[in-house]
Amino acid sequence: MVQPMRREVHADDIELGRPLKSALVDALGFPVADEGTVFRTDQERALVLQAGRCFWEGDMAPLRADAPGSQWHDRYGLLIGTLLHVKRPADPNRAAVSRLIGYSDGAVFVAWPGLAGAPVDGIADGETVLFRGFSGTSIHSFSARVQATSPTPFPYWMLSEIQHLDAREMRGSIRVPVRLVGALAPAEGGGMSQTVLITDLSLGGASVSTASSELGQPGVHVKLDFTLRAAGLKTKFSVEGYTREDPDADPAEPYHHVGVAFDAYGEREALLLHSYIHEQLLENATMRPGTRAEPL
Questions:
Q1: Contact 258, 215 (CB under 8 A)
Q2: Regarding the domain with residue range 71-169, which homologous superfamily does it belong to in the CATH classification?
Q3: Domain boundaries, the chain
Q4: Which residues does residue 208 pair with via DSSP β-bridges, in sequence order?
Q5: pLDDT tens, 145-174?
Q6: Using an 8 Å Cβ cutoff, are 73 and 79 in contact?
Q7: pLDDT tens digits along 199-247
Q8: Which intervals hold domain Type III secretion system flagellar brake protein YcgR PilZN (predicted)?
Q9: What is the pTM of this model?
Q10: CA-CA to 102 of 20 to 30 Å: which in 86, 159, 220, 287?
């Protein structure tokens, strides 16, 4: 079956001053700009598109998170919708990206893995693969046999003979590169919100690129709104903080860069943000060959 080509979003497809009718996502389906986001200037629109390709979310057929219910889930805490990395044990190349979509009688079902936006091929039924997922506190590595595959109508792999190889607990305030559109505004109100691009994220703060220098002075009390997806959940965040100087900013670049140190947020937001950050670590990591997972 020939899959239809997804149409890349260009500047002319985004109307200035009007809310987006559909969310923008990257080539792997991760949110970039939420539905309803407003780009007010050419500079704001160009800021987002220059960072990489974008597609309308409706073209991506995203997986729906479902309620887990098996001993395998209870043991390792991997939720339906969890991002996974999958590869052959001896393959030194970057792992393919998948998502956990179900369990049944000792088997695990995963979405057909993809790499650079295209489905992987060349893996036959009966082959052994490695896969890795983040539980919320630890990254777990497993081996499994590809018991069956189905390319249509919903491409998936069925994995069996699953063996737990390793678990690595993640600690500290890790910073990861991201590409998320957000809204930055004075926390006390009274100023116009800017549509900005978040370029890296940690539990303690974010680096933000803006088309305007209006909120670029250190020490400004601001509110940063953005949407992210973690563990199969799409969540809107509204976090207050204070601007700070970005030491990595290049004055020769056409856009302005500012750091935002988060002030405080709730326990639920902390857990989801923690989960999102470590899913991004998985997305950027390479699974090494061998019987034990390498530390990220």
A1: yes
A2: Electron Transport, Fmn-binding Protein; Chain A (2.30.110.10)
A3: 1-62+171-296, 71-169
A4: 198, 258
A5: 999 998 877 889 999 888 877 776 665 567
A6: yes
A7: 989 888 999 999 988 888 889 999 999 988 776 677 888 999 999 987 7
A8: 80-160
A9: 0.59
A10: 287
